[in-house]
Amino acid sequence: MENNTGNPSKRIKLGKTSLNIPEVTYRWTIENFVNSKPFLKDNKDILSPIFDAYNNNERVELQLKLRVSNKAWHFRCTNVGRYGGHAKVWVKYSVVNSSNEEIYVAGMGGSLISENVYLSYCLADLDELYNENVLVNGNLVTVCKIYFDNGQDYTQSEPDLMTPFIGEKSLMQDDLENLLKLKKFSNVNIIVGNKKFRAHKNILSVRSPVFSAMFEANMRESIENVVEVNDSSPEIMNELLRFIYTDRVNLEAVPIMDLLTAADKYQVEGLRVKCLESIMAKLSTENLAEVLDIVDRYEIPELYRYAVNFLITKRQEIVTKNDWDDTIASLSPRMLKELTAMLIKKF
Fold first, then answer.
1. Worst-scoring range by mean pLDDT, 14-23, 180-189, 318-327?
2. 1, 53, 266, 342: least surrounded by Cβ within 10 Å?
3. Which intervals hold domain BTB (predicted)?
4. Closest alpha carbon to 207 in 250, 245, 171
5. Quick one: which of 205, 186, 196 has its CA closest to 227?
6. Architecture per CATH, 23-149
7. How far apart are CA 340 and CA 332, in angstroms?
8. What is residue 170's DSSP assignment?
9. Separation between Cα atoms, residue 345 and residue 121, nearest integer Å
10. In the chain, what are the helix, strand and coil shares in percent, each to the nearest 5?
């Protein structure tokens, strides 16, 4: 479609793309999965019922397989029928946990061109699927979503016209999060309390100057491939590593001041900024004393300036609520001296 405005140099070309992409979603519940571990053997499959998918009115018979191999679970989608076409597909696997959230999300593309051709993806370590937070009443619930690509051209000039097919493809962030969860090719252990995190030196090094220095120097962390952390919790380390791998973080899942402290210690600047922005947005007279204590101990200048200005601005409200004595008592001599100087200068 072309819209002529009268001036050839100002012609506006409008385009639109509409795609019809066959898809099928199959939800597979493996009952009594919680008791299956003693009976598992390497390279033995747990099979789903055979189910149908249709591509250009042709029936494709598919079956899902869950297999244990090398102490990990592998999810497979197999063409078990006599489909003779050549179909490119994108398959997305996931597990639905007891909170009805999709976890261990993974996807890959390939072809289903003949009998017994399958797509396979390493889903999780052997023990992980037996976690009570993963299983639903002792059952393992999985979802497989399949898209058929019949040769359409997905190239388009409009950046906001993302097709459903492309939108379902696994992001690099998803892949890296799965790499962290699956611990595949890990080469360093991070010990926090009684929890061991298996990670990858190269990823930690490029994201944290502190980790980089550990692994480059002739230190225990480099020689023994072990990092012991005594000033944090497993929950904080989990969110720190998740951000290092994916740039994703759940700021509501852990005490944010503790997460900020960890981000500051390991110099993970992106996470540090996210924590600071959230703390500044939620700063109140109720948590002011805690924030001032943290910034005083760990010397976080941006938050220090913001918190002190907040204290000065809200001083009447703090005094009215009888919080002033507690707030002042929480300050170190250095901060109290600086605050007094700022008050004198301002008033």
1. 14-23
2. 1
3. 186-253
4. 245
5. 196
6. Sandwich (2.60)
7. 12
8. P
9. 64
10. 40, 25, 35
Beta sheet of 87-96, edge-to-edge order: 23-30, 140-149, 87-96, 102-112
- The Cα 28–Cα 143 span in angstroms is 6
Domain locations in the chain?
Answer: 23-149, 172-279, 283-345
The residue ranges of DSSP E strands in the chain, in sequence order, are 2-3, 12-13, 23-30, 45-47, 51-55, 58-69, 72-79, 87-96, 102-112, 118-125, 140-149, 188-192, 195-199, 226-229
Task: Please tell me the class of the 172-279 domain.
Answer: alpha beta
For 36, 39, 95, 109, the CA distances from 128, given in Å and listed in that order, are: 13, 17, 11, 25
Could you tell me which residue, 207 or 52, shows the higher pLDDT?
207
d(Cα 254, Cα 85) in Å, to the nearest integer? 51
Which amino acid makes up residue 193?
G
Question: Does 240 have pLDDT greater than 90?
Answer: yes
Q: How far is CA 248 from CA 121, 125, 174, 177, 274, in A?
A: 23, 22, 10, 9, 10
Among 42, 95, 87, smallest CA distance to 62 is for: 87
Contacts with 298 (C-beta within 8 Å, 6 or more apart), sequence order? 261, 264
Q: What is the predicted pLDDT for the residue at 164? A: 35
Structure tokens belonging to residue 158: 């409009």
Answer with the residue of higher pLDDT: 304 or 249: 249
The larger pLDDT score, comparing residue 152 to residue 329, is at 329
- For 44-74, b/e burial (b = at least 16 CB within 10 A) is eebebeebebebeeeebebbbbbbbeeebbb
Residue type, 261: T
- State how far the alpha carbon of 202 is from the alpha carbons of 137, 187, 247, 311, in Å: 39, 9, 16, 43
Tokens of 211: 């980790």
pTM of the model: 0.52
223: left (phi over 0), alpha (psi -120 to 50) or beta: alpha
